[in-house]
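It would be a great kindness if you could assist me with a short task in structural biology. Thank you for your consideration; the sequence and its tokens are set out here.
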Amino acid sequence: MERENSSEMGASQSVRVGLAGVGRFGKLHASVLSGLPGVELVAACDPVQEEVAALQAQHPHLQGFGDVGELLASSEIDALFIVSPEPLHAAQAMAALDRGVAVFVEKPLALTATEAEQVAAKAAAAGLPLQVGFVLRFDVQHALLKAEIAGG
């Protein structure tokens, strides 16, 4: 189901989010998203139905699906958080963008530069947000390593 573009949403409306992937990192994203004001976690998908069911037990209004195609076809979402296995990222992002849904995807965006460029071009052409997560970018250990490398 397509929902009106989020840029047309009124300021009082919440952002309805779907989650693709309910593994360890997906559960972390679900926890963070469900605690944010103005965000509704409304749907999740994963091929492991027990994982989806466990998340639904924590979030009774959550719609559960086996794959991202079902989620996109059956849910009204404004954004899709992609936290699935890396080989699926580009195809899932393209499917969401095709439906007019903004995308947050954990790195990598794609497995090849060509795929990444295609996803970025589709988002730009559609005027939809596309964000690649890089959650450890500002981690202390990574910052120290970067400083050591830069220092020679």
Q: What stands out?
A: Confidence is low (pLDDT under 50) at residues 1-7. DSSP finds six helices and six strands in the chain.
